[in-house]
Write a structure and sequence with these properties.
Helices cover 71% and strands 0% of the residues. It contains eleven helices and no strands.
């Protein structure tokens, strides 16, 4: 049958190894009434109640949600995604910004987990047509990923793909490494990483 929002949320953390922080001995989500009320509203299709309970969760602490810092961070992101799915872009942005601020305080300003919030925020700003803010968020995420994973890691394609879609006006200054076409340079680099990923897969198959 269809997974409820609470079960999807719990399953997500089970998969990523956070079950101990999120699940009780019986396998149910830790019993914070705010969390229960929020997911009940989402599963019941009550957008007004979901917005109301979501607002409470955005201002709540991990102690109040009975979640670990990692689980609380992902809950904030989940609220943003749910709001974005209803085209509530302003509400989604508030959730992503809150998730990012919480993640920076909890994990540090260069923690790889911040990528999720930054990519979500960057993609949202693209929808809103705020090219400068989208590029800033995605470049911030790319910087964190490069520092942690290296500049040749194929997973960087996620940021580069979005950056390449930005409608950035060409610069009159053609002397830089991007030749005045930043979006084009992002697309070129994404294509290079795609080729690298394909080569790595071919090598694995050959070795196998």
């Amino acid at each position: 049958g269809r997974l409820t929002g609470m079960r999807r949320f719990a399953l997500q953390f089970f998969i990523f190894g956070f079950a101990a922080a999120v699940l009780s001995a019986s396998g149910a989500l830790a019993q914070s009434q705010m969390v229960v009320d929020y997911f009940d509203a989402v599963d019941g299709g009550d957008s007004a109640a979901a917005a109301r309970f979501g607002d409470k969760l955005l201002s709540a602490t991990p102690d109040e949600t009975d979640l670990s810092a990692a689980a609380h961070y992902s809950l904030l992101l989940e609220i943003g995604r749910e709001r974005e799915s209803r085209d509530d872009l302003r509400g989604a942005e508030a959730a992503y910004v809150r998730a990012l601020a919480f993640g920076e305080r909890s994990f540090g300003e260069t923690d790889i987990r911040l990528r999720e919030a930054l990519i979500a925020l960057g993609a949202l700003k693209m929808k809103e047509g705020d090219i400068a803010a989208a590029e800033a968020a995605l470049l911030h995420s790319l910087y964190i990923a490069e520092a942690e994973l290296g500049s040749s890691n194929p997973s960087l394609r996620e940021e580069l793909d979005l950056l390449g879609q930005l409608e950035i006006p060409p610069s009159e200054d053609k002397s830089g490494p991007d030749g005045g076409d930043r979006a084009g340079s992002y697309r070129v680099r994404e294509a290079q990483l795609a080729q690298l990923a394909q080569l790595q897969r071919s090598e694995v198959v050959t070795l196998g």
